[in-house]
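User: Could you walk me through two proteins back to back? I'd like the raw sequence and the structure tokens for each, with a short line separating them so I can tell where one ends and the next begins.

Assistant: Of course. Protein one, sequence then structure:
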Amino acid sequence: MAHLVVQLHKTTKTQKTGYDLEHVLFQKFSFSDYISWLEDETAQRTHRHDMGRQVSDWVCDENGKVVVNEILRQETLMSDLEALRDRYGLILRMPKKPLNKFGTGKKYQDYYSDNDVEIIAKRHKRDLALFNYSF
């Protein structure tokens, strides 16, 4: 669930995300604080709170059926984009290297405590199953 780590880092570093309130809140958050914040339905948050949504919320209907033609994975984005380009004859300018690295040198798993893993495993159960993810 690397996207949660990226989301926290990106929101903490820049206000250009549209999450001005979260930008301020997250300045003092540890990753575990962030996971707790996601779980707390009473916590302050931007009205369009889509940070707490599962990835599958964006690609599945209300019955859990995938309703998009292509799903590109963040962890294989470059090769997925190349395959998409080739399959549909698209003209895409591809970056030579990843653009949104947050450069800590840590693996995303290093951010998760055992308790965080338990919370996210429940919270994102559908994503874990659909995308065959594990910690």
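----
Protein two, same layout:
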Amino acid sequence: MDDEICENLPFRISHPVNNNDHSFQTVLRQRELGLKNKCGTEDFIFSKLYTSFDKFEIPQTPRPLQCEERRKYGGIFNLEFSLDGRLLVAACEEKSFLLYDASNQRCIKTITEAHTNCVNCVRFLDTYSFATCSDDMSIKLWDLRNLRKETKVLYGHSNWVKNIEFSEPEGTMVTSAFDGSIYTWDLKGKTRIIDFIMLYSFLVVL
């Protein structure tokens, strides 16, 4: 072939590669030249990539409730976050409610015998106070700053109280029960019933 033509043809230039060098530049150059990487190169690349990430300590998984504890508190009937999202309150089947730190899911307070029957619902009213209702036909108001005893006990329903809702602008709480009634409570001043609706009534024949 004519030497003049050969000079104009493309050709591959061979560059010496240090097989002991695992640097990024060497790896990229080997790929450009179509050469295979030395055994262990991928391990080197991965270690460089992943060890450059910031390290975060993963909190230990909270210990699940043991069988005896499950029997003690029973099922979870309702969950409610505090208004600032820092606390989670669980209403329990066995007359109790549990307070959890929402940031690490650890139980920080247990109130046993909160009611004389299962606790069905929890509803926060403001930063510190919340209400619970129960199959004992009562509604109780609590303050996070002193959980030794409820601040108020409200009666009116004649059957299991199952749900609580709260309207902050009006300062009114609404409760419903298995007796077919809905009560509206004024919480701004002296707690009292300001409205009552009987949706239905029924007679249980034994």
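The first helix runs from residue 3 to 8.

Let me know if you want the two compared in more detail.
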